[in-house]
Design brief:
By secondary structure, the chain is mainly beta. The protein has one domain. 4% of the residues lie in helices and 47% in strands. The protein has 1 helix and 12 strands. The strands form 3 sheets. Strands 11-10-9-8-12 form a 5-stranded antiparallel β-sheet. The chain has a 4-stranded antiparallel β-sheet with strand order 2-1-6-7, with no helix packed on it. The longest helix has 6 residues. The protein is elongated. It starts with 6 loop residues before the first strand and ends in a 7-residue tail after the last helix.
């Protein structure tokens, strides 16, 4: 499997994930520089209202791409699996499904797990409360 490096952008001004935006992402996590359709710079690199969401290189059971901050429900059809519902995060050089309230996490990559995207922590903050997941937005 080859690694695909791609991003979506969450715009906190309109509370929406932007699918297609011309931008340059600062690899140190300091900001996102956006560009107009004609390639002109918009704003500054310190566009704090734009949050990059990295693709995890994994899709859910329906084939939908999973990104950083997505809320995932994981189930197993075999005995011994650890079902979990949580937020996708990158930590310790790996992607995880994290549930802070239950104080546990499971690696995102699992060949026998069934992952379902329920939403994301930015556009669906009500899901965090409903599913009893503590997460900063």
């Amino acid at each position: 499997m080859s690694k695909i490096l791609k991003f979506k952008i969450f715009d906190t001004k309109i509370n929406k994930i932007i699918q297609n935006i011309n931008c340059c992402i600062d690899v140190n996590g300091q900001g996102v520089q956006s560009f107009s359709n004609k390639g002109f710079i918009e704003g500054t690199i310190k566009n704090k209202y734009l949050i990059p969401l990295q693709y995890t290189n994994k899709n859910d059971i329906k084939g939908t791409e999973i990104y950083d901050g997505y809320i995932i429900k994981r189930e197993y059809e075999v005995l011994g699996g650890n079902d979990i519902t949580g937020v996708v995060k990158f930590d310790e050089c790996a992607w995880w499904i994290v549930n802070e309230i239950e104080q546990r996490s499971e690696r995102l990559f699992d060949e026998i797990a069934i992952d379902i995207i329920l939403g994301n922590k930015w556009e669906n903050p009500e899901l965090l409360k409903k599913l009893n997941i503590r997460e900063e937005v």
